[in-house]
Design a protein that fits this description.
Chain lengths: 166, 245
């Protein structure tokens, strides 16, 4: 099983991440990366604390956080599906996978299920074009996913893949 | 230092930008994101010129190109005209209802928009407002998100704590894209509501209490803000004329 996420953000945890870095602007991205890794998203409190730590305007820190696709401002699910939508995967039918996930979990790219179990996003290329279409569940790669295959994957993570929202 | 702009030799201080040199010599280079107060941002690319240095020639943004060599500059070649027309065409498509962009579209003879467009959008993302806010010292707004979603906003689109309601952003905006509404005693901008101080003499808006307090603390002066700029000037003029009697 892939590493599961994660801890709820709190001031003490946030501080322990932030204090690994000197209070200089050039460390903003590094701190954000650590935060994203720890919580799977960037909590607002964390961004405010970064701004304070590096003495930058909050608006600028927020601007950076929204610029990079690697960061999320809303909590991701326990299992985060990344469906590759690069050229090869797109041609091999990544849209079918996205559609299947929507049929079974009711989430579109960028969304999270209400119970916080699953979230879905599309990525542009994971460098596994020979295995197209590919899906990442957290850090685990599933190659050559079929429309039936994705249902099995959802089930293997405890999703009620049969309780479809048709 | 001597450089050549549009075949005209001009004498310039080394280190100033091509744009500054051109404007000092009454040569027009169009700009969108440039303001004398801030210098070049290199954002809009309207000020592209061709720089010839010896045998090599390239296109550069004149607002951020400091002159350090004896170069030859052309401010309007067919290639540059094409770039400018493209920029205006694209920005017009983004903000087709803005009067500012409509005028530019006519000037640059860009085609009309036939596709569905966002009728609400007026912003051309020149970032003059962001710069103005930064220079004011608040930095309450910034460009957020990326690509086609990019826009100017406050963090989480909330009423920004950093905003002092000075309205510098709305004032500098070339397209009037920033909504600022004023009623009898309130000013609303960026989803934030401020009290509005009006001039005791003429009733013109002077600013918000937060803004006046900020200016007072920044300037270190205990200023009297009962009057607007115009009325303060008149008052000062009366005072000064008294000295000459």
């Amino acid at each position: 099983m892939p590493a599961e996420i994660k801890t709820e953000p709190n001031e003490k945890l946030l501080l322990s991440i932030i204090n690994n870095y000197p209070g200089e602007k050039r460390y903003i991205l590094s701190i954000m990366q650590d935060m994203q890794k720890q919580f799977n998203y960037l909590p607002r409190q964390g961004l405010e604390m970064i701004a304070l730590h590096v003495a930058s305007p909050f608006s600028q820190v927020y601007s950076m956080a929204t610029f990079y696709k690697a960061f999320s401002l809303v909590p991701k699910g326990r299992i985060n599906f990344k469906v590759c939508d690069g050229t090869a995967c797109h041609i091999k039918g990544s849209n079918v996978i996205i559609d299947q996930i929507y049929q079974h979990l009711g989430i579109k790219p960028g969304e999270t299920t209400p119970d916080g179990e699953f979230s879905l996003e599309t990525v542009n290329c994971i460098g596994a074009c020979a295995l197209a279409p590919a899906v990442l569940a957290n850090d685990r790669v599933y190659p050559k996913v079929t429309s039936a295959g994705i249902v099995e994957i959802i089930k293997s993570y405890g999703g009620h893949a049969d309780a479809s929202s048709k | 230092m001597r450089i050549i702009i549009d075949e005209k030799p001009v004498e310039v201080e080394p280190g100033i930008t091509i744009l500054e040199a051109a404007r000092q010599n009454d040569i027009d280079i169009p700009t969108l994101c440039y303001h004398e107060a801030f210098g070049g941002q290199g954002m809009c690319r309207m000020c592209m010129v061709e720089v010839k240095n010896g045998a090599t020639s390239r296109l550069v943004a004149s607002c951020t190109y400091p002159i350090s060599e004896e170069i030859e500059v052309s401010t309007s070649t067919p290639a540059i005209a094409r770039i400018r027309r493209n920029i205006i065409g694209l920005l017009y498509r983004r903000a087709p209802n803005s009067e500012f962009m409509q005028l530019l579209r006519e000037q640059y003879k860009c085609p009309e928009v036939r596709l569905d467009v966002n009728q609400e959008e007026n912003c051309i993302l020149c970032r003059l407002c962001v710069k103005a806010c930064e220079e004011m010292g608040s930095s309450a707004i910034a460009a957020v998100f990326r690509g086609t979603d990019k826009r100017i906003g406050t963090p989480y689109d909330d009423a920004a704590t950093a905003c002092i309601g000075c309205g510098a952003c709305a004032q500098i905006c070339p397209t009037g894209a920033i909504a600022m509404t004023e009623s009898e005693d309130r000013r609303t901008i960026w989803n934030k509501d401020f009290a509005l101080v009006r001039c005791q003499r003429c009733g013109q808006p002077v600013g918000t209490p937060e803004q006046l307090e900020y200016i007072a603390s920044k300037s270190g002066l205990a200023l009297e803000f009962g009057l607007c700029q115009e009325c303060r000037r008149k008052q000062a003029a009366v005072k000064v004329s008294g000295y000459h009697r």
